[in-house]
Amino acid sequence: MQRKDFIKKGILGTFILSSSGAGATLVRNNIDELKPLNLLGFNHIPNTMSNIMENSVLHKAGTRGHANHGWLNSHHTFSFAHYYNPERMHFGVLRVLNDDSVAPGMGFGTHPHDNMEIISIPLEGDLEHKDSMGNVAVIKNGDIQVMSAGSGITHSEYNKNKDQAVKFLQIWVFPNKKHVTPRYDQITLNLSERHNKLQQILSPNADDEGVWIHQNAWFHLGRFDKDFKTQYALKDKNNGVYAFVIKGDVRISGQELNERDGLGVWNVESLDITAISDDAELLLMEVPMGVS
Fold it and tell me: CA-CA distances (angstroms) from residue 273 to 126, 136, 223?
């Protein structure tokens, strides 16, 4: 199927790759399906039962969409595949935040993407990547992977481990340029540089720290001791920040967050961050609130 303008059409022809003995089996699926959406910035939909406040939105871990396919156990912060929630279409240009666990010897078979910035952050295990640009790579905890799908690519993702699951965050961001030449990049970061510090892992600039994407966005990772305090100053006053707690408990500008909770905030200049548990791990994603 042609995937031009796939966000409007909402279809991705994807496959499950399963390892069985010496061979592999491809089974058609629609796990990566995106339903049609209205681009409304941060999706402020009037609703007396809404979690969307004046300038923030809270997504508790247990309220995320969930799909367990056996080989893939996935939690969706935003609407994805068969999970649809009109209040959770995206946060500005942040379209997908999936918390994925792939069983040993399993993975996503070759499937297409276009006009999306795709970031993978491995948490556990080894994830093998292959794509139509000829890249073959393995990413693990401490690595950051990015693809600019641009005018169109195909790729596969596969759990190389036979004895443990691969866990990773799959993040999609709308680009500020369409139909660019596709590209792939990955880097390995020094984990010690995020101890009681916000380590920049992504920016709009190729010469800056971390990987880069076609968008005015900055991502940071931090791992904090209990009671550690810091502040995050936004790079662009027109942006918002979506905070995702990977591990432990933190307090952000007065809001307590637990493991896998998400908090989006906009119309602010900075965030106050306090770790309220040992070894708390936090991902901050600063993104434009308008989708062009």
Answer: 31, 38, 12
What per-residue confidence (pLDDT) applies to 196?
Answer: 98
Q: Report the alpha-carbon distance of residue 90 to residue 94 in Å, rounded.
A: 6
Burial profile 54-82: b = 16 or more Cβ within 10 angstroms, e = fewer: eebbebebeebbebeeebbbbbbbbbbbe
pLDDT class of 15 with cuts at 50, 70, 90: very low
**8 Å CB contact between 284 and 241:** yes
Report the pLDDT value the prediction gives residue 52, as an integer from 0 to 100.
56
Three-class DSSP category at 276 = coil
CB atoms within 10 A of CB 208: 12
Name the residue among 211, 227, 96, 110 with its Cα closest to residue 158.
Answer: 110
Reported as a single tens digit per residue, the pLDDT across 133-173 is 999 999 999 999 999 999 999 999 999 999 999 999 999 99
* Mean pLDDT of all residues in 32-39: 44
Those residues whose C-beta lies under 8 Å from the C-beta of residue 103, and which sit 6 or more positions away, are 70, 71, 72, 159, 165
**Which CATH number is 6-288's, of 1.20.1290.10, 3.40.50.20, 2.60.40.10, 2.60.120.10?**
2.60.120.10
Q: Both ends of the chain: CA-CA distance in Å?
A: 26
